[in-house]
Amino acid sequence: MRKGNLFVLSGPSGAGKGTLVARLLSVMPHLWLSVSATTRNPRPGERDGVSYYFFDKEQFQHAIDHDEMLEWASYAGNFYGTPRASVEEKRSRGIDVLLEIEVQGALQIKKKCPDAHLIFVETPSLSVLEARLRARNTEDEEAICKRLAQAELELSLKKEYNYVLVNDDLDTALHQLVDYITSSSH
């Protein structure tokens, strides 16, 4: 049995990763989306075990200390990470896995899983990114400024990825993403 592919989608907050992933899963239901863990507070409508596994900082540190995270990162004052066991189990059964994670984590995956396919999602410009972050209406000015500063750093790392996707038009971006995943699957 073939080992499942590992597709890693990341990019700046506000680039539209979550929207792309939701649409991608509707047209490629064979992909298994890994649920990440985080120490940030849930946003309205998010559910534990579905949107994220919501850990407190002590729980997350325990998982790091016991090598239970495939990758993890600190971002905007919180921890984010991918629980290792479920990803490895799915891949060993030939199931293709999709991770939607932060750039720091994606670069860890690149080192640990050289066969992973890293996909960087960006907006056409920083001004478009800022407008999307503000339109969410979920964070205060300080948090938005932190996310924009982080985005500039992340954009400088996109050369480390296998594929860069500009999410300007959602339908076009989705089509390009499906084409990349289809051509990369073996």
Mean pLDDT over the residues: 92
Query: What's the alpha carbon Rg, rounded to whole Å?
Result: 16 Å
Number of helices: 7
What is the terminal separation in angstroms? 12 Å
Q: What level of helicity do the residues show?
A: 40-55%
Taken in chain order, the helices and strands follow as: EHEEEHEEHEHEHHEH
Main sheet: strands, sense, barrel: 5 strands, parallel
Global geometry: globular
What is the topology, as strand order, of the major beta sheet?
Answer: 2-7-1-8-9
Could you describe the 3D structure shown?
This protein is an alpha/beta fold and 186 residues long. Helix content is 43%, strand content 20%. It has helices at residues 17-27, 57-65, 84-92, 103-112, 126-136, 141-155, 170-184; strands spanning 6-10, 32-33, 37-38, 53-54, 69-75, 78-83, 97-100, 117-122, 163-166. A five-stranded parallel beta sheet has the order 2-7-1-8-9, sandwiched between helices. A four-stranded mixed beta sheet has the order 4-3-6-5. A hairpin with a 2-residue loop joins strand 5 (69-75) and strand 6 (78-83). The model has no long low-confidence stretch (mean pLDDT 92).
